[in-house]
Amino acid sequence: MTRDPFDDLLDRSTPATRPAVAPDLEAMIAEARAEGSPRRTPRVLVAGGAIAALLVTGVGTAAATDGFSWAPWAQDPLGALPFTMATGFVCELRFSEYTGGADPAFVAQVNDALRDWYATGDVLDEVAAYVDDARAAYDDTAVVQAMDDSPVTPDAEHTAWVREWTAWDWAVDDAERAELERLGIHAGDERMAWSERSGQIQCRDLDGEPYVPGAGS
Question: For the whole model, what pTM was predicted?
Answer without folding.
Answer: 0.72
